[in-house]
Amino acid sequence: MGSLDELTRLLGAQHLLTGAATEPYVVDWRGRYQGEALAVARPGSTQELAEVVKWCATHKVPMIPQGGNTGLCGGATPDASGRALVISLARLNAIRHIDTDNDTMVVEAGCVLQAVQDAARSAGRLFPLSLAAEGSCTIGGNLATNAGGTQVLRYGNARELVLGLEVVTPQGDIWNGLRGLRKDNTGYDLRNLYIGSEGTLGFITAASLKLFPQPVAQCTAMVALNSIEDAVAVLAAARKGFAAALTGFELIAANCLQGVVRVYPDQRIPFAGASAWAPWFALLELSDSESEEHARERFKTVIGQCLEAGLILDAVIAENVAQSRALWHLRESIPLAEKAFGKSVKHDISVPASRMAEFVETTNAALQQQFPGVEHVIFGHLGDGNLHYNVAPGTAFTEEALLARQADIHGLVHDRVHAYQGSISAEHGVGQLKRDYLPRYKDPVELALMRRIKAALDPDGLMNPGKVL
Amino acid sequence: MGSLDELTRLLGAQHLLTGAATEPYVVDWRGRYQGEALAVARPGSTQELAEVVKWCATHKVPMIPQGGNTGLCGGATPDASGRALVISLARLNAIRHIDTDNDTMVVEAGCVLQAVQDAARSAGRLFPLSLAAEGSCTIGGNLATNAGGTQVLRYGNARELVLGLEVVTPQGDIWNGLRGLRKDNTGYDLRNLYIGSEGTLGFITAASLKLFPQPVAQCTAMVALNSIEDAVAVLAAARKGFAAALTGFELIAANCLQGVVRVYPDQRIPFAGASAWAPWFALLELSDSESEEHARERFKTVIGQCLEAGLILDAVIAENVAQSRALWHLRESIPLAEKAFGKSVKHDISVPASRMAEFVETTNAALQQQFPGVEHVIFGHLGDGNLHYNVAPGTAFTEEALLARQADIHGLVHDRVHAYQGSISAEHGVGQLKRDYLPRYKDPVELALMRRIKAALDPDGLMNPGKVL
């Protein structure tokens, strides 16, 4: 192994952290994974990062790329050996360039997502990636994990917002692929290979991102529903009636809303009478390029059709921005309000929308059979086929008793997701948390292809070892 | 080498073509590349294809995947050695499944694009990929080359329309990755690696495609413009005013329209007076989810703003479907009318929209300096930054004299595209035609990464040799 003195000389002592200073970097933010690091390097430029990587490659030191360290799967945490160098991209945080005529911006990996959104807004544009951790996660981490969030229905996952990348390979070479082109068919799509590879193939150091016009107006509605089947039918009607102006479609089980108003008494369910006790709710968001009034009129038309068709029990359409915010606030409060149910066993899954109702019904039943009395906490991005399907202690379990069965519950739910041709990680990635599930659920040919690519690009296996594969 | 008898036994004699029967398969449709084939195999299923591939892998026989054989870069044509087996996917032409609740369909690679569009339409949905060869090209070829076309502005390139793939590897293994999920973060993005790899990494045998609601109404407008700068500003206004309802934005140089009406006297330029002599025109298409009347009103608003801002000289908004078709017909007739200018030297390029005006101005000037008197024939998808930038003989050259300078003209144009951070193949791919340009214009690190991936997935180099790399 080489001497850390070389890295200290390269970066300066204040940017090569050792000992206690490494502590915030070696544990994931949920506190599930605790590792050890040889040191933490904080390079200040792509060139410096490449030098650090070359040192690691020469001395066969494993590298752990880290952005905001907000991931949910332990993808940025080193193992316990203390052999790996954590490489933080936090100092690569420049907005390099905004081109409003081309609707693109070039940002460095360490930019906090909110800073990217703000820079776009300052230029009169929208960068639509939006998720709960946006105040502390970095765009590099978002791309490494192909983050999802609340705007996927209209704008796609993180990968669909990227036109080009700058990457440092595991050998310390810099690939400048920062193209601002919407069309370029000159070779293999390396961009999408790096996006979502969770730091196992190299470092994403900068990205060329797509910008969009800001919507002139947004309007939100909430509907009360009898079933998931009806929710899927309303989704189809909304896609037909609003096309790409439909920017959100969130499904919420009744108990989630009730949990929110129990935990946050200043919030309320916006329905009266029987509708307040409907089993399901959906939140719809419409982004309009004309006016708020026009958005509301469009909502009235489509929701009116759904009411007539008997797909909806009741509906509220926000009258103004404050009401829209209040409806979104209900949805956004669910993860925080989940504590009202006790610590739950969580799943980030997707299944085809056409099979969602059957999946939920049969999986709920199977859980009740094997774990009688657990509570189902179900909400998520129905428009993307993505549910947060969580299992809470309910009346029959203590938190401890439930968590002791966690592996069995994961097994049951993931087996059923697989049977419904779904994904066991819709938007959070694999990291350490789900790595050992892949051989069970992935096509073996696909896994073999992934291993060949890993071996081809990182033959010494130094990039983020123990993650994904 | 193994005996072809084995393949004949596998496929039946009528599906293993030899001798003169191979002729239509060994020349590209423009007639630029003429090769020879050991034979042409026409497997009837993915399983049969995998058996053929295993035979090739065992006997080290190069394989040339072929769909509709409509490519423009010689990507599906064998070399002259006669050693390679052409493998036609034409018989894998089933529409396997349409799921309207999930808005997905699964189709086999040999389906003609128009058949895919028709099947979607029959199910009340839109599959938006649309291009000139749609009556004979196949979806497998569209995905192998990441085809573009006229709807990219709204719906993206072919890769953005795909959720999953079925692939036969160069070793004859079948990867079933036919997922119908909009979110799945469980590993490397192999799907996008195969899409656009032009058959050099394996065979795409089927795909899970995204479907969209059919627009309720479409409306088209044409505007007369003073400059490309103004066209870029109108594009920004249209993106702002129409958001994703803007489904087309085509730039057309005046001489292209004049060529069309000269060759097709039944067509006419829809402007009178000075506007008919404007140097540039743009065609805008709006897809509306409300009504034709609403679409026209939106056009009036945004085009009115552009007129007031002095960005537009004049505008016509189609009053009905027939007028919309007539405007599109003008645009679609340009490639056919190009013969009015004599055989031209063609370029399929993209540059950032913000640099388009400067690129055209300086490249035109450089061409006039080096090849005085050539005529510039410029049109294309400005909304995607993609131009067909063609150079015709003009007054100073015969066709022969111009074509004798073809390599020099390509060199000049491509060098300038590169200087403007553009792409020398925006939508047609690389094939044989542009392979030797890549080392000049691609980042060497990127090319090295591509070669590593090629070697990892196709270590014997049997897949479509001589293409791309």
Account of the 3D structure:
- Chain A is an alpha+beta fold.
- Chain A contains 16 helices and 18 strands.
- Chain A has helices at 4-11, 46-59, 113-122, 139-144, 152-155, 190-194, 228-242, 254-263, 292-308, 321-332, 334-337, 356-370, 399-404, 406-419, 438-441, 444-457, and strands at 16-17, 39-41, 63-66, 85-88, 95-99, 104-108, 125-126, 162-168, 174-177, 203-210, 212-213, 217-225, 246-253, 280-288, 314-317, 348-350, 375-381, 386-392.
- In chain A, strands 15-12-14-13-17-18-16 form a seven-stranded antiparallel beta sheet, sandwiched between helices. Chain A has a five-stranded antiparallel beta sheet with strand order 5-6-10-8-9.
- In chain A, a hairpin with a 4-residue loop joins strand 5 (95-99) and strand 6 (104-108).
- In chain A, helix 1 packs antiparallel against helix 2.
- Chain A is globular and about 70 Å long.
- Chains A and B meet through strand 9, helix 6, strand 11, helix 7 and helix 16 of A and strand 9, helix 6, strand 11, helix 7 and helix 16 of B.
